[in-house]
Protein: NAD(P)-binding protein
Organism: Leucocoprinus birnbaumii
Amino acid sequence: MASTTANGAPITNGTTPTTNGTSTNTNGIPAPAHPLTWFITGTSSGFGYRIALYALLRGDNVLATARSLPKLQKLVDEVASLHDPTAKDRLRVFRLDLGDSAEVMKEVVDEAAKVWGRIDVLVNNAGMSSSLLYWKLVMLIQFSLNAGWGWPGLIEEAGLPTIQKIMDDNVMGPVKLTFAITPYMRAQKSGTIVTFGSRSAWRAELPGIGSYAMVKAAIHAFSENLSVELAPFNIRTLLVEPGSFRTEGIYSHGWNTNNEIPEYEPLRTKARAIHASIPGNERGDPNKAANAIIDVVRGEGVAKGREWPNYLVLGSDAELAIRNKCNVMFNVLDKWGDVTRGVSFD
């Protein structure tokens, strides 16, 4: 059986198949030799919804998941209305919650893998688990009916139970799912794992995003490690680091007011005002971002002729956040270099 690249294209000596079946001499990302099968979490809205839709429009297959099947009806209906009559036949939907056990996730993945016999692309996109809705009810009871749960909020005010649940579901959730899918990719000796990070991991100093930044920083490290440990099996990783986009993301959730600490009032007031000013003013177009991600995975469009990036920064605000943090660290190294290098054995 011929070896294939991570997106299913045959490995050749410096050549890449073109869309008409010929080859060109290039070291760019190879185009897939067959329709890709995407397993995408969080497809009821946001980036997941758009990636699923546009992957279908490219002729690929999509295994779409959300924490409840009714939430996927919008996607199903839109796909059914597309001019491509084959699109609805290339979509399957599954219930999957980030708070599910590893055993439940494996059952879903095993069922999904039977549909087209392979999984070429995993998109770890989903954010909040419905298990957190349980915690919202707990907090409502514990801190009175005037309390509210949300992603944004000062980290100490979030409280340990909420932070623990956020980390369990939104770090361990993608980890469990990835471990359920990698055996299939290792067996087929190809695959791509797309994981959503965030610029927030690069600017955790911003008050109110501590819990979110913690999750994204952990996911960032997870993706980087996988890029090395899965490379021998021809499995690629892509860490997507978006800025602010007009999706149903972090800013669509209310501010966490479960455990307000009086001393934080001035900082909280300022942070909430900044948070409230963002929705509707995001510069990022989620449709363009979704198509850029698909271009990279498929080696076409904006990615044609380019090498695999491992990281995909989306949005000028994300670029600025990353450059600023790099400059901060370079500045620290410049000013404290003597201390940094002065702790070795003589």
Remarks:
- The chain has a mean pLDDT of 85.
- DSSP finds eleven helices and nine strands in the chain.
- The chain has one domain: 34-329.
